[in-house]
Amino acid sequence: MVQPPSSFIISSTEAENLANSKNLTLPQLLPSLLKSAQLLARPLISNFSVGAVGLSSDGRVFFGANVEFENLPLHHTIHAEQFLITNIAAHGGGPKVMNIAVTAAPCGHCRQFLQELRGVDDIKIVITDQEQVYEPVYEAFSAILPYAFGPCDLLDHTHPLILEKCSNEISLKDEIFEAIKGNEPDLGDGLRETIDKNEEFVGNEGFTAARGSHAPLKSSVVSDTEILSNGFSELAKDEGFAAARGSHAPVEMGVVIDASDLSNGYSELIDENEEILKREAFAAARGSHAPYSGCPSGVALMDCEGKVYKGSYMESAACNPRGYG
């Protein structure tokens, strides 16, 4: 029975060993992984799962799958090929993509998105929904996008493309945080220390509501002080912790909070979290691929355990710009 992969990346050593165990080359291995890639898909609207697998020039194998979002139009879908390239970009899988296998023909937007890769003419692609393809017939990428219009038509040949390091010259200044143009934000050990503090925070019994607990509550009292706008969520003033808990159950037992409860270092933690998110979003924006619109952007999110995730905007030459994390 086919199982989803345990990770979205297979290391070069593991990929080589897996190919050898099946007496396959690495390009031949890719189609055999497509069924597993499809199991990563979340086609909540179309119910049509697409899987993509790519081999990078450093020997690693990357997965991609389509992700759809309920109550949103289909054009918000993350397509499998875009997921794949974003996965490679986020994990330093460059400088090149060598081979791609995908279960269904890429749409026009995905073909144009792939055109943003350096050396795209050298990429070989196979489209198959068969798990066992011992002699996959790879074609040049130009076979699925002839007479392509892309970055070479609009940009200087030295301009960084997707998978290449980009450093957009942008700056962010306000009363909390200042980033000087040209300096890459370096969080270093400070981020780890703050994450540790966040973990301590969410482990505090008095703040279990902020963790998104689903345990029921019945009554809750808070002061007028607005508390915990620290990236977990904002706790409502008079409605208790129900909103921040993400719980749909009634409240059973609450915690009384006043300003003195924040004198134990958590008020400083709020500021640290805000600064970290700004720095991470700024770093993501600096690495954004936006040479056509000139509008680089980035986003950073913090989950209820204090872990930070970031994403960058990417666009292509021949379609309306869209963002992908």
From TrEMBL:
Keyword rRNA processing: no
Keyword terms, alphabetized: Hydrolase, Metal-binding, Zinc
Gene Ontology biological process terms from the UniProt entry: nucleobase-containing small molecule metabolic process; pyrimidine-containing compound metabolic process
Protein's name in the database: cytidine deaminase
Assembly and interaction partners: Homodimer.
Membrane-traversing stretches: none
InterPro entries: APOBEC/CMP_deaminase_Zn-bd, CMP_dCMP_dom, Cyd/dCyd_deaminase_Zn-bd, Cyt/Deoxycyt_deaminase, Cytidine_deaminase-like
Domain CMP/dCMP-type deaminase per the UniProt entry, residue ranges: 25-152, 272-325
Entry GO CC: cytosol
Gene Ontology molecular functions: cytidine deaminase activity; identical protein binding; zinc ion binding
EC number: 3.5.4.5
Family from the record: Belongs to the cytidine and deoxycytidylate deaminase family.
